[in-house]
Amino acid sequence: MTKNVVVIVAAGRGERLGIKAGPKQYRLLAGLSVLQHTINCFLEHSDIDAIQVVIHEDDHSLYENAVKTNPKLLPPVIGGATRQESCKAGVDAVHGSEYLKVLIHDAARPFVSQDTITNVLSGIEKGIGALPANAIADTIKTADADGTVLNTVSRKNLYLAQTPQGFVLNEIYEAHSLASQTDTHEFTDDAAVAESSGMKVKLVEGNADNFKITTMQDFHAAEEKLSMMTAVADVRTGSGYDVHTLGAGNSVILCGVEIPHTQSLQGHSDADVGLHALTDALLGTLGAGDIGSHFPPSDPKWRGASSDRFIQHAVKLVREAGGVIANMDVTIICEAPKIGIHRDIMRERVSQICGVEIARVSVKATTNEKIGFIGREEGIAAIATASVSFGIMKNV
Fold first, then answer.
1. Tens of pLDDT along 260-295?
2. Are the beta carbons of 117 and 42 closer than 8 angstroms?
3. Most buried among 34, 136, 174, 196, by the most CB within 10 A?
4. What is the CATH number of domain 4-230?
């Protein structure tokens, strides 16, 4: 069975990130080092059997503090003064082992996708290396030393090379050995080393997110990307329940709709159990108490009040807190009147009162199967849930 190894080159000094910043591969992104994020990309891929990291001779303690142990991680090896020398050190370390294919990757590319890794592995053949790349979309210019444009270069057949670059291990080992014997040229990637030995290199599909962290601007872009990747949607759900007795009267008000009936709901306000339950559900998403704490039944000014005032108050509090109502669902529990024929107009009324689209409002009904006070038609109850989105959760 073919086994695959990855060489991750992490011996650079990262000068362009800032002298005081230290080697960029050891800086923290969302609580993990850049290098650990990069390693994790390959640990997650089922076709990667081992990972060989190449480090600077001064970075043993940095490496030990920045990287978590894992059975797939081989002991780090020391790189050279140039990227080419460091890549050769990594290839030399795994050569002569059980591995057939090798991928060589920059430690400062922590966003390589699983698809890109698969594409590279699939593109490796005998005598052929695989290079992930994206076609250049921007216009290309040449300029002189003072920044004056000299020429516009055709972008046809131009590509931005990425890593990991993949090869048959024995072949790239031989190519690096040959390249190390000449001082006339320094190769900036392993594909160039392979080409210099006569090996063919073919392009496979890369990914725009697989950028290399080189400058502080790149680092900030990586922070923003990881922040978005790890963000958790702050969606809160509240529940509500209300019940009122039935007494003398000729109609009931449910979800803001007056429905003819042989009795009426009794309460300090209009006793609309549907809107009361929905009000408590919305307040629940804020941890803001219940309807009674905002509209005490002991206060005479709420006597006979229309319940749309209560739920509009809850909606206002939700929106002031930055919330967006995603859904409201209420179930009316009664033996009579029949709710089904009024359901759509009740949904429409709740939609109007709360200022949300009707698709986000659900009204249902059920009986209590003649059981208890509701079954004896002594009262009507309602249960409700509400879901509110507050964007991205803070302090995750």
1. 999 999 998 999 999 999 999 999 999 999 999 999
2. yes
3. 34
4. 3.90.550.10
Name residue 252's beta-bridge partners: 259
**DSSP, residue by residue, 204-242:** EE--TT-----SHHHHHHHHHHHHHHH--EEEEEEEEEE
CA distance linking residue 329 with residue 347, whole number of Å: 10
Q: 283 near 314, Cβ under 8 Å?
A: yes
DSSP code, position 355: T
Query: Any idea where the domains of the chain sit in the sequence?
Result: 4-230, 233-392
Q: What is the pLDDT of residues 70-88, one digit of tens each?
A: 999 999 999 999 999 999 9
Fold (CATH) for 233-392: 60s Ribosomal Protein L30; Chain: A; (3.30.1330)
- Three-state SS for 357-377 is CHHHEEEEEECCCCCHHHHCC
The first and second tokens of residue 15, run together, are 């000068």
Gap between the Cα atoms of 289 and 75, Å rounded: 57
Percent of the chain with pLDDT over 70: 95
Is the pLDDT at 175 greater than 70, yes or no? Answer: yes
pTM higher than 0.90 for the full model?
no
CA distances from 355 to 190, 308, 311 (A): 60, 12, 11
Characterize the bridge pairing of strands 324-333 and 140-143. unpaired
Contact 253, 271 (CB under 8 A): yes
Dump pLDDT digits (tens) for 329-345.
999 999 999 999 999 99
What local confidence, expressed as pLDDT, does residue 20 receive? 57
Lowest mean pLDDT among 52-56, 222-226, 330-334, 366-370: 222-226
Contact 278, 308 (CB under 8 A): no
